[in-house]
Amino acid sequence: MDIEAGTTVAALQAGLPLEALENRILLCHALGLSRVGLITQSERTITDAEAAALEALVERRLQGEPIAYIVGRREFFGLDFRVTDAVLIPRPDTELLVELALERLPPQGRVLDMGAGSGAIAVAVAHTRRDAQVSALDVSPAALDVARQNAASNGARVRFVQSDWFAAIEGERFDMVVSNPPYIAEGDIHLSQGDLRFEPAGALTDHADGLSALRIIIAGAPAHIEPGGWLLMEHGYDQAAQVRDLLAEQGYVDVASWRDLAGIERVTGGRAP
């Protein structure tokens, strides 16, 4: 679409070919305005440079690129996170995992986040529970770079470790392990739809049946969790029963699943034997 200099902010809000929320986000980003500024400067006209910048952003969105990657930010658990195409975009569904972890983490508890990505889970826990000792691992150096930046910008104390699952933390033990691992099965149609087309495939799918990463975590966690400590994992909308079975087979107790705001069993966990 063609965006012309001299157009008012109000006209752009009404006329951009995106959803109202996306219009506001891209306008704020392109024009350097706050949400309040969109209202107080509604009759302001845009310059040639602003028109070109906004047009480029809108075109990227029309091509399907996620808003979070376009503006480089996403809110999660009330905090502001930097995101790049090296990490998954934090989603509201995952806030359930953070809430469950916070409810179960003992005072001065040690918690490990496996597959940190942007650091959303680890940073949210560390920011909320200043007494906790939070560690987070990821196999991707690029993801860890983003996560470290997010911990610093949110004033959260997190130790980050590059590791292929448990490989680099031999002998370490925690009061809790949490994870949002790759759980989409190879060939799942969702991988070719929407935002998922732009997100790192290795953080979405295990290139197998969707359960292989969950199996690795469930089998390996008892060697790293204090007896009675919790393992909590996010998983796919149809995997809860299978994950409960995997936990039970490994001897975990108090195995349960919890539903997200959409009523979907989104997190399953149990206490280490």
UniProtKB/TrEMBL annotation:
<dbReference type="GO" id="GO:0102559">
    <property type="term" value="F:peptide chain release factor N(5)-glutamine methyltransferase activity"/>
</dbReference>
<dbReference type="InterPro" id="IPR029063">
    <property type="entry name" value="SAM-dependent_MTases_sf"/>
</dbReference>
<dbReference type="InterPro" id="IPR007848">
    <property type="entry name" value="Small_mtfrase_dom"/>
</dbReference>
<dbReference type="InterPro" id="IPR040758">
    <property type="entry name" value="PrmC_N"/>
</dbReference>
<dbReference type="GO" id="GO:0032259">
    <property type="term" value="P:methylation"/>
</dbReference>
<dbReference type="Pfam" id="PF05175">
    <property type="entry name" value="MTS"/>
</dbReference>
<dbReference type="InterPro" id="IPR004556">
    <property type="entry name" value="HemK-like"/>
</dbReference>
<feature type="binding site">
    <location>
        <position position="138"/>
    </location>
    <ligand>
        <name>S-adenosyl-L-methionine</name>
    </ligand>
</feature>
<dbReference type="InterPro" id="IPR050320">
    <property type="entry name" value="N5-glutamine_MTase"/>
</dbReference>
<keyword id="KW-0489">Methyltransferase</keyword>
<feature type="binding site">
    <location>
        <begin position="180"/>
        <end position="183"/>
    </location>
    <ligand>
        <name>substrate</name>
    </ligand>
</feature>
<dbReference type="GO" id="GO:0003676">
    <property type="term" value="F:nucleic acid binding"/>
</dbReference>
<dbReference type="InterPro" id="IPR019874">
    <property type="entry name" value="RF_methyltr_PrmC"/>
</dbReference>
<keyword id="KW-0949">S-adenosyl-L-methionine</keyword>
<comment type="similarity">
    <text>Belongs to the protein N5-glutamine methyltransferase family. PrmC subfamily.</text>
</comment>
<dbReference type="InterPro" id="IPR002052">
    <property type="entry name" value="DNA_methylase_N6_adenine_CS"/>
</dbReference>
<keyword id="KW-0808">Transferase</keyword>
<comment type="function">
    <text>Methylates the class 1 translation termination release factors RF1/PrfA and RF2/PrfB on the glutamine residue of the universally conserved GGQ motif.</text>
</comment>
<feature type="binding site">
    <location>
        <position position="180"/>
    </location>
    <ligand>
        <name>S-adenosyl-L-methionine</name>
    </ligand>
</feature>
<feature type="binding site">
    <location>
        <position position="165"/>
    </location>
    <ligand>
        <name>S-adenosyl-L-methionine</name>
    </ligand>
</feature>
<feature type="binding site">
    <location>
        <begin position="115"/>
        <end position="119"/>
    </location>
    <ligand>
        <name>S-adenosyl-L-methionine</name>
    </ligand>
</feature>
<protein>
    <recommendedName>
        <fullName>Release factor glutamine methyltransferase</fullName>
        <ecNumber>2.1.1.297</ecNumber>
    </recommendedName>
</protein>
<feature type="domain" description="Methyltransferase small">
    <location>
        <begin position="94"/>
        <end position="190"/>
    </location>
</feature>
<dbReference type="Pfam" id="PF17827">
    <property type="entry name" value="PrmC_N"/>
</dbReference>
<feature type="domain" description="Release factor glutamine methyltransferase N-terminal">
    <location>
        <begin position="13"/>
        <end position="72"/>
    </location>
</feature>
